[in-house]
Write the structure tokens for this entry.
Amino acid sequence: MPRRRRGARRVDDRRVVSGIVHRRRSGGRWRDRPAA
């Protein structure tokens, strides 16, 4: 019987890095966030 994975689901690395870069450039303003 396969074991269930624990923790959060895997997220695309490129999307994570893009989010970090966006946050650094915009200063973290909520209105400047990209649409989900």
User: Anything to note?
Assistant: The helical segments are 13-26. The chain is about 40% helix and 0% strand. The CA atoms of residues 9 and 34 lie 21 Å apart.
